[in-house]
Amino acid sequence: MQKPLAYRMRPTNIAEIVGQQHLVGPGKIIYRMVQAKMLSSMILYGPPGIGKTSIASAIAGSTKYAFRMLNAATNTKKDLQIVAEEAKISGTVILLLDEVHRLDKSKQDFLLPHLESGRIILIGATTENPYINISPAIRSRTQIFELKPLTPADIQTALTRALNDTKHGLGTYHVTLSSEALAHFSEATNGDLRSALNALELAVLSTTPDADGNIQIDLKAAEETLQKKSFSHDKDGDAHYDVISAFQKSIRGSDTDAALHYLARLIEAGDLTSIMRRLMVIAYEDIGMANLPACARTVTAVQAAERLGLPEARIPLADAVIELCLSPKSNSGMAAVDAALADIHNGQMGEVPASLKDAHYAGAKALGHGTTYQYPHNFPGDFTPQQYLPNKLKHRQYYEPKTNGKYEQAFKQQYEKIKKLLDQI
Using CA atoms, how far apart are residues 387 and 222, in angstroms rounded to an integer? Predict the structure, then answer.
């Protein structure tokens, strides 16, 4: 059975790699490692279909070392032992270990001494952030390289190469690919070269040649073949958390269009729970005291979204996102409580003033608890200055009001007025 086009077109040396020039281009780190034949174990991470396996294959081809491929999730410890035995005989084996973030402790413990001796050069491939999902023991013995999604130009280069390659590609077919179809294959796959190559092959093999034996691939054929959305990601994957991060940072930065873009990506991933939770966090963390009514309206929008469910939930969520983007911003509430928590963590607490201690039990008066407390509602304006903080923190200020919205401007004036009176005690 013929292997898929994406498999057949894997590069055999580092010069054939498409994209990732920040790593494999002349003078770059992986290029230099190959040229000097000074390879070290590494972890390659990034989205699917962007060249992790290709780079491993090309490194092996350029160095002439034996090359083996295993999967950390599905291959057994015995499979690793076979690779280790081969390494003892041949000297060095390059091992591409896919889904390296799923390497269990038993397999990890077996691998570590072989990595340290250099008999096995590990190239771990993963779509997950290795700093979060890979054990420190493996990380400390590898270099970590992030791969980037391929550009449409990169994918067009690879597709053109596949169409012209008579040995491994589609060069034996008489294919005419329209510029619109080429653009669709290169753009709608969202940087995934594997998907683009396999879709191209399906289009070629499923299209009936004309009377002259030519295969015409137009935009319609490309769209029918590439039955996938231009964007998708696993809501449990690392890329999903990058989108959530970008979502919050776009709202914090008041970029309405960017925030709506990331909202749409999260909706497309179907993760309504993360959207709702993140929106409430954003409302109180980034807008907060500057526009408290917007925080309340965000909670209302989230409640509506929860009751509606998708797809209708997108409407109140979009309204909330737009308001939060265009609202004045303040993180003073979060900063204030974090400053108070920092004092607690550092042991800066002190004793509760006697006037504030619980006086609702027999004997409290004899201890002097609560006897000097002044009930504010007995005074004009329902306020009277008295000490509330412990002695050692008597003049400590946690809240630093901002003036980015009319609400916090009013709170600032009131806070400073009261603070001035309390500081005189």
Answer: 75
Contacts of 354 (CB under 8 A, 6+ apart): 367, 368, 369, 370, 371, 372
Can you give the pTM of this predicted structure? 0.58
Q: How far is CA 197 from the centre of its chain?
A: 26
For the domain covering 352-423, report its CATH number.
1.10.3710.10
Taking only the tens of pLDDT, the chain with its 425 residues reads 678 998 899 888 888 888 888 988 899 999 998 888 888 899 998 888 888 888 888 888 888 788 889 998 899 999 999 999 988 888 888 898 988 888 888 888 899 998 988 889 999 998 888 887 788 888 888 999 988 888 889 999 999 999 999 999 999 999 999 999 998 888 888 788 888 999 999 999 999 998 888 999 998 888 888 865 444 455 555 567 788 899 999 999 999 999 999 999 999 888 888 899 999 999 999 999 999 999 999 999 999 998 888 889 999 999 999 999 999 999 999 999 999 999 999 988 888 888 888 877 767 677 778 778 889 999 999 999 999 999 889 889 999 999 998 889 999 999 999 999 998 88
Cα angle: 23, vertex 29, 33; to 5 degrees? 120
CATH topology of domain 5-146: Rossmann fold (3.40.50)
CB of 287 closer than 8 Å to CB of 295: yes
As a dihedral over the C-alpha atoms of residue 404, residue 405, residue 407, residue 408, rounded to 10 degrees, the angle is: 0
Single-letter residue type at 24: V
Q: Which two tokens stand for residue 67?
A: 């090359």
Cα–Cα distance measured from residue 91 to residue 238, given in angstroms and rounded to the nearest whole number: 36
CATH class of 238-326: mainly alpha
